[in-house]
Description:
The complex is a heterodimer.
Chain A: H1 2-30, E1 53-54, E2 60-61, E3 79-89, E4 93-104, E5 108-119, E6 123-124, E7 130-132, E8 138-151, E9 164-174, H2 181-187, E10 195-211, E11 214-225, E12 244-256, E13 259-266, E14 278-279, E15 282-292, E16 295-303, E17 307-308, E18 314-323
Chain B: H1 10-18, H2 30-35, H3 38-54, H4 68-82, H5 95-101, H6 105-121, H7 126-136, H8 140-143
Amino acid sequence: MNHQKHKNDRKVSVLNRRKCAWGVMLGLALSIPMAAHADDVMGKGRFLATGGIQSLDGAAGGGINPWAVIAGYGTDQQINPTASFTNVTLPDFSVNQLAVSVGIYNRLELSYAYQTGTLGSNVYGPNGTVALPLDGMKIGQHIFGAKLRLFGDAVYNSNNLLPQVAIGVEYKKDVTGGNSLVPALQSLGAGVEDHGTDVYLSATKVLIGGFFGYNWLINGNLRYTKANETGLLGFGGVNHDSAHIKPEFSTAVLLRPDVAIGYEYKGMSNNLSDAGLKQSSWQDVFVAYFPNKSVSLALAFARLGNVGPYTNQNGVYLNGTLTF
Amino acid sequence: MNMKQFKFRPAALAMISGLVLACSAVSAHAGYYEEFGQKQGIANIINDFVGVVAADNRINSYFAHANIPALKAALTNQVCEALGGPCKYTGPAMGPLHHSIGVTQAAFNALTEDLIVAMDQHHVSVPAQNHLIKILAPMSSDIITK
């Protein structure tokens, strides 16, 4: 009797578990500061917005650039996982990203991002014929990332200019195969590889009241990379297949503790120019809203400029990041 | 939490008041003292701040035995002094007491967040809030001991 009841309970619980899993996760994510003691290992002891958002590589940062901050809000005694969705919609293609990360003891961040996109138009020659039949081709990559905070704290030490400094590594691999852009570039003889590894050094400083009384974040990165358009167009290229060091810069002003506006610049290498494909630096202006430490939303106008076969790729960036 | 349960505990007082003692080396900004509503305005903010802390399960255990009127008076004097007002903090010394409490960064930050809540309730502008926080932030290295 008892045994039977147990079995039934278990059936119901398995069914409910499936149904409820997402609801519970969302509920957890949206529930406002827990009644937990400040020192709980899953607590969120850092200040609002200091985990940035999950950028377009899976790392915590400003949207397109990583920052030296560690994902989530964990202090040196806390661990916070994060998850995010990002969409970038441009005139001739779009990219979606699903990403997860975990910030461990405000020291180490591990991340994974899965990017996919579809090219939306062909490239036409001067006489109106299709020069490059790209419409419908896929782009996409896996990005496995790790970031280690070396020293400093972006927010404390406000009486000096010592920044928080981190080193990061990102292994990227094309996921598309078949009818996709990277193999197409390879078949054109552009010499691109389908995987690559970036290494970056990042420094972040928050100047409390530093911008006319408002908190002001300044971030600079140096990235050692062979990637074309962060890897969406493969890595390296004809006669330009050596790695370059590219600068990245972000700045943000917190109008309130929960609202940031900012600007980012991301330098791009130009490995594909000999294949007739131009790349220009990325820029964006963004607004991010952090209603609590569990969720953030960001909207940006992104100016990607020349992206391989396409010109004037300027569009909209959307990101939602959950911290658990 | 019933405020009448609080009794005086020097260590708890030291932790919370230690937040605001950084001040002597920082030059005062008369405008912000005015914006906080001078000493009476600061006292009102501190009054609400202590209420927010008492209701904050993340950190209220630190203050379970604190003497609330004494805590409020000490904090008011400290913030007043930090903002350049004509006040003087005369409570217990900070340093050694913090070690016995074992304040984590999370607890320090939670306390700061509660102060922001109280300042918001009194419509203190973001720049004025940041001015006070900037004075308090460098103390973290003395207060966070765990």
